[in-house]
Specification:
Chain lengths: 318, 609, 303, 346
């Protein structure tokens, strides 16, 4: 296990470094380079030249990278001239809100998708499976923003059950108004459940086809014992891995949902930043989400290893 | 999405969207002003929530702001709630004129052939109990003199460059000596209205822990104070708590603020103006999109003062049954889009007045008004709009010299050496500079084809541009559209010469025009004078320059200037959309009139039972 | 029931018999696919949408160049089966034009993604070792960045056009195929015929193309199908965020989000046709992809 | 744990077989076709006796094993009769079958690598049947598991309880599988290719273990295999299956010395071509087993049989019987032909 952890963690560090290289590369991809990114679109060529001089942007690229990286590691993600605030402070305000939205949605998605996926697998190729599969596929195929707007149209405007907008203001205002979280959470959950349940269905089907399931049956285990005593834990491994890997997709869904519901999280931050060409913010979000994903998949792998002793044993895979 | 940005001059001048007239013919503030039909008893207290349209969120509190932050959202709808300027634009009839009762000072007195100005302050107080004095005016002037290039509204040659000296006569009277004679209207409206007295006793310092002094009296001290206040203003997270921003002379104090533009104001009990706030709180809430705002409006009552996206204006009836009143808000400005006179390929074409006039004749303003704008706007054929009602516009602009007429356009082209090729590209078949020929710099075979980049995100702008492309094809003028985010469009807006790569754009429409906020007296000295900072299309006409100078230095009216520019079409005039179609809760009263310079005065608002 | 499911139910014996029976008939996967009614329906839907978009305009002529203000947002009626849009274009004609853009971008992006991913994955998996580790860490790093963020960034740097969308979406979507093909290549490279080719001195690129890629065709085809579906959703999301193609060009995503501006005005013909077109297309490609995967007998959890 | 087993044994009249199968048909419905996997099979196994079921891949022998253990998939349709100690198993509901599986009928599968749940500890897996069938406590189940692991010859059984399957070698795992199948001391044990995945030495050890246990517990053991060598050493009787049907059955010596069915002969003959008989696979008989979805009317082996005549392809041969030796063939092998099968194989 120790060896596994060491190996997996060093892998994660390499990936994180590569993420930083990519972000740094993006910074340099911009017309006008990092100076334009940092000073904003209103910067004149003179401003840019002065900035480059001042910040050593005329030095060799590796040196620049090192400076930038040490800056990022010490929490300096730059300043947003558009928002008039440092990127790290913006992220600090917005990140908890997105974490809440995505966290609740994903938790809910898992809580729904696991039984649904199990149900589908057990009822494979019967009416119940077909109905659920169809619903899941249709949801999966519908653009998230449309799902959100249809929900608003029906539940907020016509029936007036839930507010059409996420709570504004501080984080505490957010959690003090759980009603207003319902629709955004529901949107992400619906879109996510669709993908998750399909995956869990296959995952459980794969497990059900395993010899050990037949072996358990041969010992007189009931379906319940087989599902919960045997299959659950084995199917959980891939599901946990899926969770780790789907973080970026969930962030994408969250971005759209935040836009639809006017939810002040990092997705909205990134969107505003993109439309106002506020590059320090976009790149800040990219690096934070990237890091979160890497850490997320690391945690997922560790959890997988805890669930599945084989993984622990075969450290050094892939 | 309306972008009520007013960008200043320094980097990329230009202002934008909004304004004016309404299709509705009612007087003043449009239809059904809620204030006029009070339905219940006024109560004090409560929180009124105002919806900020996308892209109009405040994020800068120090009133002496740089170009990047220079916007209606920051000035008129944020800073002015707490920090009042010497002269308040917008009277009780919703006209863009000074309202002395709301101003910190009485109307100035001009003497010595309009070269000396005497200003007398009224009895206003800071929230810490100190009176607002001429020292506070001098504080602003000192800061500005030392840091003028950092102030977005600064124009070389204008204030404070045109100020020779000032003299504090007493706590209430200050005398400004100018470097020449100026049109008093212009000077009051376009120069003095920018002066915002600042609390010397609280802000004249160089560090948060330092004591306030008289640092501003030296240039280096003034720079240090400016840098300190600017740095504080960049610490957005402390807006709600920083004691600096709690010393206000306006009716509202910022109580809390979230990045992204959420602002909560608390009534300032010490406000000494004509109307004290009845509401306890005033909240500005940002929205990502028009749809998001409408969703909220449709689904409940959390917005007291919102707006209807133009394309959904048919929802007015439904909202009215939900307890909202529709009230078009007319802004003071003009709408147009730009053609680049210095573009190496198309500059010579744009330089020809007949071609600009032909294009102006192809803009079907009435269709645009009836279609994309759903009637919420008015035709606009020149730099000075007809609406809201104002003392400056001329009847010539009411119909304009170039109303929609494809046949006029075709005639203009044919009579100037072009072979018109409808649905294709017309070609120049008679080059040369003589009468009836294409004109200077236009070779035989030149085709009429332009690229037009417009700001994405506003439904009616996108509709107008698609229709315009279609209409232009009737005279064989090809327009290739591309839509880009607002900010990337305005980043191109800077005067350029044909050799610069930044001059590669041919036509640009950021979806607005000019809001007369900095310059409520609409002289055009910033827009159409050769070389002026916001003359982004690089228009240059000696005759226009002369007409503009006459409005600034003389006492001549605006008529000659505005009519000449309407006729010349240095930009393509577009119908003027209303600033917004406000939807105001029937419970919220006192909201009329809506300010022509788009400021908010929630101190006049109150809830009824 | 798919063959591998039969196999799992029956254990080794019958599945062998079954598989052998099928093998004798030839065209194993084609037969299995055709037997999957859902997948065939999906294929029919795709063909129908392609015909609608690319062949439809030949029979149903509409003016998609000149706007008709005054004729905007008209409800469906005689001569305009789906009404008109917000500048007076015929909505059905618009649906065809938008479908062309959407499908071009989706197919193009899927092609870019698959080609890039296959080359990358096959190379990494075939050579293995340090090169593989490095190449796959790069994939991991890129996967950690949400595609939509990357797209938001790229879309502000490059102007939106069909080609730009193809490249940008393709460039963010190649990671999954890269991973899949790499896994295939890892297992294929130790096969006897690959080893034999190696000892005979066949050059690596040749082996990668002839053996690794050829033998991964099933995986590639399945993934390409799913890539098309994902690209459509991504383009729709981008259009919603205002980063689609410029008018008068359009795509279903842009039409849908334009229509959503009129949600409360009740102009259903502006949202449902493009919306349903998107859902149907994505659904069809997913179903076909699943069908192919079953037909090829691939691991259900991959791709 | 011995008490209930002993009681059961006393109740059974020694004169009756533990397992009695008669006229068993198993059809498996696929969307495209019906596989007639087992057709008209009858056989008996007595307490302490081991019957070897042999045949090529696809001959239905594993399906037979699954049918006996009540583990057929829902797609399968069973007709005929399977009696265990006189109780009819065909037609029982899933719930009732559950009480028999593991308790009365144990099964050991081919691959010990996959037959164990990778995420459960050995002790829990071995003791599972006891907990399910007898409601034993966790501790009691673990104790019994350790005993059973000891009996199947796993070294240091107590230490193994907390280990995971991947920590064990293949042979050890198969012992674990056997232990978990036998923990309730079932009356019938179906061993489906129990040694195929193991190396030769381990194979021998495991098979000896079976011999010992079936005698010790008085089980009726069905040893399903394709390996004639395995059958030769470890089965009392042999049941040769072809295309889902009985081809020939009888005492092991009889089958090996005087096989009558030509398929049996071919099976025995095929061994000699292999250098190491124990590793022999049956795929070396020319031709292919028939398609079980469309059985013909004649002898299923006819297409591959060198002696096939017209009647072979038109009608199923009736069974002939002689001292418990039964075969279905129109042209049974005679003594001359039998002699050509080398002595080493008999």
């Amino acid at each position: 296990m120790i060896r596994f952890l060491r190996q997996r963690c060093s892998q994660a560090v390499v990936v994180l470094l590569l993420v930083s290289v990519i972000v740094f590369g993006l910074l340099h991809l911009l017309p006008g380079g990092p100076a334009r990114a940092i000073l904003g679109t209103h910067a004149t060529p003179t401003n840019i030249a002065a900035f480059n001089q001042q910040n050593g942007l005329n030095s060799p690229v590796p040196v620049q990278y090192w400076h930038w990286l040490t800056g990022v590691l010490s929490g300096n993600l730059g300043f947003s001239y558009v928002q008039n605030e440092s990127v790290s402070s913006l992220l600090a305000q917005r990140l908890p809100k997105t974490a809440l939205l995505a966290g609740v949605s994903v938790l809910l998605a898992v809580l729904i998708a696991v039984p649904v996926g199990f149900f589908q697998a057990v009822r494979r190729h019967r009416a119940g499976d077909y109905v659920v599969t169809t619903v899941a596929l249709v949801l999966y195929s519908t653009p998230a923003f449309w799902v959100g707007i249809l929900l608003i149209d029906v539940l907020a405007v016509r029936l007036r059950v839930f507010p059409a907008e996420a709570p504004q203001g501080s984080f505490s205002a957010l959690i003090s108004d759980p009603q207003a979280l319902v629709l955004p959470v529901l949107t992400i959950t619906l879109v996510t459940v669709a993908g998750f349940s399909r995956y869990i269905r296959s995952s459980v089907l794969d497990e059900l086809a395993q010899d050990y399931v037949r072996m358990a049956r041969s010992k007189g285990a009931s379906r319940r014992v087989i599902l919960f005593g045997h299959v659950l834990r084995n199917a959980a491994g891939p599901v946990v891995t899926l969770l780790g890997l789907s973080l970026p997709f969930i962030v994408s869904g969250t971005l759209i949902t935040e836009y639809v519901f006017n939810y002040p999280g990092i997705g909205l931050l990134a969107f505003d930043a993109a439309t106002s060409q506020d590059y320090p913010v976009i790149l800040g979000v990219v690096i934070v989400v990237g890091a979160a994903t890497v850490v997320g998949s690391l945690l997922a792998d560790i959890t997988h290893a805890i669930l599945d002793p084989r993984v622990r044993a075969s450290a050094g895979i892939g | 999405m309306r972008h009520s940005l007013r960008l200043g001059l320094a980097a990329a001048a230009v202002a934008t969207a909004t304004l004016v007239a309404t299709a509705c013919t009612s007087s003043g503030g449009g239809t059904g002003s809620p204030g006029s039909s009070a339905t219940g008893k006024a109560v004090s207290g409560g929180t009124a929530t105002y919806a900020e349209p996308p892209g109009t969120t405040p994020n800068y509190i120090f009133p002496m702001l740089t170009a990047a932050y220079y916007s209606v959202a920051n000035i008129e709808q944020f800073q002015r709630l707490s920090f009042r300027s010497l002269y308040w634009i917008g009277n009780a009839q919703g006209q863009p004129v000074v309202d002395p009762s709301m101003s910190l000072a009485a109307l100035p007195v001009y003497s010595k052939n309009d070269s000396v100005v005497t200003i007398t302050l009224g009895n206003y107080k800071w929230s810490d109990g100190e009176p607002v004095t001429t020292r506070d005016v001098a504080f602003w002037i000192n800061l500005l003199k030392a840091n003028k290039t950092s102030f977005a509204a600064y124009i070389p040659g204008e204030f404070p460059d045109n100020l020779k000296s000032y003299k504090i006569v007493n706590a209430k009277t200050i005398v400004l000596t100018l470097n020449g004679s100026y049109n008093p209207t212009w000077f009051t409206y376009d120069q003095l209205s920018q002066i915002t007295p600042l609390p010397t006793q609280a802000w004249d310092k160089t560090s948060a822990s330092g004591k306030a002094g008289n640092y501003d009296e030296t240039t280096s001290g003034a720079k240090a104070v400016f840098n300190f206040l600017t740095a504080q203003s960049k610490d957005i997270a402390t807006y709600g708590t920083n004691p600096l921003w709690k010393t206000v002379d306006g009716p509202w104090t910022l109580a809390s603020y979230q990045s992204g533009g959420y602002a909560k104001f608390e009534a300032n009990p010490a406000y000494a103006g004509p109307t004290r706030p009845k509401l306890k709180y005033f909240v500005e809430q940002p929205f990502t999109s028009d749809t998001a705002e409408l969703n909220v409006l449709r689904s409940g009552n959390s917005i007291d003062y919102g707006y209807l996206p133009t394309q959904e204006s048919s929802q007015s009836g439904v909202l009215s049954s939900q307890g909202y009143t529709t009230s078009p808000w007319l802004g003071w400005g003009t709408t147009y889009f730009l053609m680049n006179f210095n573009n190496p390929q198309t500059g010579p074409l744009i330089g020809q007045a007949y071609l600009r006039q032909a294009m102006q004749s192809l803009i079907d303003q009435n269709s645009f008004l009836a279609g994309p704008l759903k009637g919420y706007g008015s035709t606009n054929y020149g730099p000075v709009p007809v609406k809201p009602s104002n003392p400056y516009s001329d009847s010539y602009e009411a119909k304009g010299p170039w109303p929609y007429s494809p046949s006029t356009a075709v005639k203009l082209l044919k009579s100037n050496g072009w072979t018109v090729n409808p649905n294709g590209a017309s070609t120049c078949t008679s080059p040369g500079t003589g009468a009836g020929q294409c004109g200077k710099g236009i070779a035989a075979g030149t085709k009429l084809s332009f690229t037009l980049a417009y700001a994405s995100g506003t439904e009616f702008v996108s509709q107008e541009m698609q229709a315009l492309k279609s209409d232009f094809s009737q005279a064989g003028i090809q327009v290739n559209l591309s839509s880009e985010p607002f900010d990337s469009i305005i980043s191109l807006l800077t005067p350029c010469t044909s050799s610069q790569s930044s001059c590669s754009w041919q036509m640009l429409n950021y979806g607005g025009g000019w809001t007369y906020g900095v310059d409520p007296y609409p002289t055009g000295d910033q827009l159409f004078e050769t070389g002026s900072g916001s003359n982004s299309s690089n228009y240059s006409s000696p005759q226009a320059n002369a007409l503009i100078q006459a409005t600034v230095h003389g006492t001549v009216g605006l008529t000659n200037y505005e009519n000449y520019l309407a006729q010349q079409a240095p930009v393509l005039w577009m119908p003027q959309p209303d600033y917004q179609i406000s939807e105001i809760s029937n419970k919220l009263q006192g909201t009329s009139p809506q300010s022509p310079i788009e400021s908010l005065t929630p101190e006049n608002w109150y809830f009824t039972q | 029931m798919s063959p591998e499911n039969v196999a799992s139910v029956l254990g080794p014996e019958q599945s062998t018999a079954e598989a052998e029976a099928e093998a004798t008939a030839g065209g194993v996967w084609l037969r299995a696919f055709v037997r999957n009614r859902l997948a065939v329906t999906g294929l029919v839907v795709i063909v129908a949408l392609l015909l609608l978009s690319f062949v439809g305009p030949l029979f149903y002529h509409t003016d998609q160049v000149h706007t008709r203000l005054g004729m905007e947002t008209l409800a469906p009626g005689a001569g305009r089966p789906l009404g008109t849009d917000d500048v007076g274009y015929d909505e059905l004609g618009r649906l065809m034009v938008g479908g062309q853009t959407m499908l071009e971008v989706a197919f193009g992006a899927a092609a870019v993604a698959v080609v890039l991913g296959v080359l990358w994955g096959a190379t990494a998996g075939y050579f293995g070792g340090l090169l593989d580790a490095l190449m796959m860490r790069i994939v991991d790093a890129l996967l950690a960045i949400p595609a939509i963020l990357l797209l938001l960034f790229l879309a502000t740097v490059f102007r939106p056009s069909v080609l730009m969308l193809i490249i940008v979406v393709g460039v963010t979507a190649w990671l999954v195929p890269a991973r899949l093909i790499r896994a295939e290549a890892l297992s294929l490279r130790s096969r006897e015929y690959v080893l034999a080719a190696k000892t005979m001195g066949v050059r690596s690129p040749t082996i990668i193309f002839r053996h690794i890629i050829t033998n991964s065709l099933g995986t590639i085809l399945v993934n390409a199908t799913l890539q098309v579906a994902d690209a459509i959703l991504l383009v729709a999301a981008l259009s919603f965020l205002g980063l689609g193609v410029a008018p008068p060009a359009t795509n279903w995503g842009a039409m849908l989000s334009d229509g959503l501006n009129y949600t409360y005005s009740g102009f259903w013909w502006l949202t449902y046709p493009p919306g349903i077109a998107i859902v149907l297309t994505v659904l069809a490609f997913n179903v076909v992809g699943d069908g192919l995967r079953d037909a090829f007998g691939l691991d259900t959890r991959r791709g | 744990m011995n008490a209930p087993a002993t009681r059961r044994r006393e109740e059974q009249p020694a004169a009756a077989p533990v397992l009695q199968v008669s006229g068993l048909d198993v059809d498996i419905r696929l969307p495209s076709a019906v596989v007639h996997a087992v057709q008209d099979v009858s056989l008996e196994v007595w307490a302490g006796e081991t019957v070897g079921v042999v045949g090529e891949s696809g001959c239905g022998k594993s399906t037979l094993g699954l049918a006996l253990a009540g583990l057929l998939p829902p797609e399968a349709e069973t007709r005929g009769s399977i009696r265990q100690d006189g109780r009819e198993l065909v037609g029982l509901r899933e719930r009732e079958l559950r009480g028999i599986r593991g308790a009365e009928v144990g099964i050991v599968f081919q691959d010990p690598m996959t037959s164990l749940n990778p995420t459960k500890r050995i002790g829990a897996q071995v003791g599972e049947a006891l907990r399910l069938q007898r409601g034993a406590s966790k501790a009691a189940a673990l104790r019994a598991a350790a005993d059973m692991l000891d009996r199947v010859g796993l070294p240091r059984p107590r230490e193994q309880l907390d280990r995971f399957p991947h920590e064990l070698s293949g042979g050890m795992r198969q012992r674990v599988v056997i232990a978990s199948a036998l923990i309730c001391e079932p009356r019938v044990l179906v061993a489906d290719e129990p040694t195929t995945a193991l190396d030769v030495t381990t194979q021998a050890q495991i098979l000896e273990l079976f011999d010992g246990l079936s005698a010790e517990l008085g089980m009726a053991t069905l040893l399903v295999t394709h390996d004639m060598g395995v059958v030769a050493g470890h089965a009392n009787r042999v049941f040769v299956m072809y295309a889902g049907r009985e081809a020939e059955t009888g005492a092991t010596e009889t089958i090996f010395e005087t096989p009558r069915h030509r398929y049996t002969g071919a099976l025995l003959g095929s061994i000699l071509r292999m250098e190491t008989p124990r590793k022999s696979r049956l795929g070396t008989i020319p031709g292919r087993p028939p398609d079980l979805t469309a059985p013909g009317t004649g002898c299923p082996f006819a297409p591959r049989c060198t002696a096939a005549s017209g009647e072979c392809t038109s009608q199923l041969p009736a069974a002939s019987e002689e001292d418990g030796h039964r075969w279905s063939c129109y042209h049974p092998l005679d003594a001359q032909e039998t002699k050509r099968i080398p002595e080493a194989q008999r």
